[in-house]
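[stage:ingest] chain + small molecule (heme C)
[stage:ingest] validated
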Amino acid sequence: MFRSSLKYCTLLLTLFAAYAQIPGPAQPIPFSHKLHAEAKLTCSTCHSDPQKFGDSIEIPDAPKCLECHAWSQNPTPTRATLLSYVEKKQAIPWVRVFSLRDFVFFDHRYHLMNGAECEGCHGPISTEDVVADQLNTTKMTFCQPCHVKTRALTGCTTCHNQR
Ligand code: HEC
Ligand code: HEC
Ligand code: HEC
Ligand code: HEC
Ligand code: HEC
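[stage:predict] done
[stage:export] tokens:
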């Protein structure tokens, strides 16, 4: 009796977790941040920090992936898929998750220089099999409270200036 109700609770919790998890978009290759974090890879292995204002953080392409996947002991279909992108000279068409509309100005560098952390803005990426916008990062209501708290500029033109 106790065990079955325990099982029932676990089932409910699992269902709740699945329901609470905001789904991310399907990607052309089922890339998992969780799996790569478990293999102890850091964010900067694949995402370069921007060197100057206006640079974006790159999303890696097939040649970067093949630095490791060309050599794996037990090749999976992933290697062939990656090689086919290289042969076709085609970039992997990753579906963007965090994308600001063009009237919003944002630069990673201001934030990284001020000590902001990747997962503070993007949510628990290293535990996600599929990247999703868990924190509503691209909404004004996400940006503004932190600008108030950190005494950054809060005037409308801070983020809506034409630059
Ligand atoms: C092994 C390479 C690799 C590592 C390590 C990695 N990423 Fe990624 N990242 C990717 C790829 C590939 C994508 C695009 C596919 C996707 O969204 O899952 C991506 C997408 C993202 C995105 C979504 C960008 C967008 O707007 O679509 C964010 C945010 C991100 N990564 C943050 C991180 C953070 C934070 C870490 C460290 C905890 C990290 N990544 C570690 C390869 C990597
Ligand atoms: C620094 C090394 C490294 C890089 C770079 C890297 N991976 Fe991986 N990848 C791993 C390791 C380690 C594993 C887990 C062990 C395994 O299954 O081979 C893994 C597992 C995977 C898996 C699941 C297993 C499989 O082979 O299907 C996929 C899919 C995958 N990676 C895709 C990618 C893609 C796409 C990129 C480029 C955006 C990438 N990886 C970049 C090291 C890397
Ligand atoms: C202050 C919040 C914040 C922090 C901190 C932050 N990001 Fe972002 N990130 C964003 C926003 C907002 C976007 C969407 C930018 C756009 O569409 O112009 C984004 C976009 C991205 C993208 C998509 C490519 C791009 O440049 O638009 C990647 C990849 C990414 N972030 C990874 C990271 C990594 C890795 C870190 C830590 C080194 C990090 N982010 C730290 C807010 C943040
Ligand atoms: C973690 C807290 C935090 C979050 C979240 C955050 N910011 Fe910031 N932002 C800062 C800090 C701190 C600065 C630097 C202030 C300074 O240099 O005086 C800054 C600076 C900026 C600047 C440069 C302002 C200037 O000096 O010209 C812009 C633009 C900006 N943020 C836009 C955004 C947008 C858009 C978002 C939401 C997608 C966002 N920020 C989210 C803390 C944050
Ligand atoms: C810290 C950055 C930041 C500041 C400061 C800021 N905004 Fe925004 N604003 C955003 C972001 C991010 C969005 C995008 C929201 C979205 O796509 O839903 C946005 C969207 C908007 C929109 C469009 C809303 C919609 O749903 O179409 C308007 C209008 C707007 N802002 C006006 C203002 C005004 C007026 C001020 C000054 C009182 C201001 N913003 C200050 C970041 C900011």
